[in-house]
Prior knowledge:
The protein is mostly helical and 332 residues long. It has helices at 3-22, 26-51, 60-77, 81-104, 110-130, 156-179, 181-191, 193-198, 203-229, 234-237, 240-253, 260-279, 285-300, 304-331, and strands at 140-141, 231-232. It is built from 14 helices and two strands, in the order H-H-H-H-H-E-H-H-H-H-E-H-H-H-H-H.
Amino acid sequence: MTARDLIPIAVxxxxxxxxxxxxxxxxxxxxxxxxxxxxxxxxxxxxxxxFGGQFSFGHAAFFGTGAYVTAxxxxxxxxxxxxGLLLATVAGGVVGWVIGxxxxxxxxxxxxxxxxxxxxxxxxxxxxxxxxxxGGAAGLLIKLDVRAANLQFDDRAVFYWLVLALVAGVLxxxxxxxxxxxxxxxVAVRENEDAAKALGVNSLKVKLRAxxxxxxxxxxxxxxxxxxxxxxxxxxxxxxxxxxxxxLAPIIGGVxxxxxxxxGALTLHGLGEVAKQFAGRIPGIDLIVFGGVLVLAVAFAxxxxxxxxxxxxxxxxxxxxxxxxxxSHAGR
Length: 332
């Protein structure tokens, strides 16, 4: 990576870090924290689905694993929250590798792989809902003990900065993937797996690395969710809602791009909050907005918001290069 690759990430991180100094409203900070958690999980989905072309409908399996492992380690075994965060992230990577090994070794691709991931997430949800060890239907409530050692802070802004730092780190990781040999192999597998194999790419190894990394990043977002809201149950941790959000954010923002998941998460939840303010607390109004934005993105912005902006920029440059007279004649 070069300095040119790092500058946009650094600028975005610095500007976002200044927000709590300007905005101190608790609801706004809650929104920003939740949006960043979704963006983090969506970036995990993007590594597998965007760069690798392996679309998953069940990333809740990794999100929930991270949330449950960090909660159980603290409640059942007294493990420090920071250590639980690390172990839960690793657990998400292991779950990802196992699901990938079972799926990819069987030759599952496309919609078959997507449905298998959905099935795994649903199995995990049922097991978590029925097992006393995971709290059953009542879920798990993490004890409120506001100390930095417990990953609990008096000021919401501190947690916001923590999540922002992790998002920035994953953005750097994604940029590295985009520029690395591993990233090139991922794109080759996405475009034509058989051709990639013919060129000597070990597609199974590449896809297993991608899904393990994707699972770890998504599990990290689940850990942060559990640690911030201090409560999880099966429908929250393994519910289809999170799989949908982690899938939609990269599609809306730009699949296979570094900033696409962040832009998509901000757009979706920003529009959802605006709709709630104007339409009142109508149940499901945010889902209606999500569906409308998805339809518009598929119809008019195949590359997401970032792809649309890039095409508009290229078109503007083309018009400037041709000059006003050429543009006028072209219009006739």
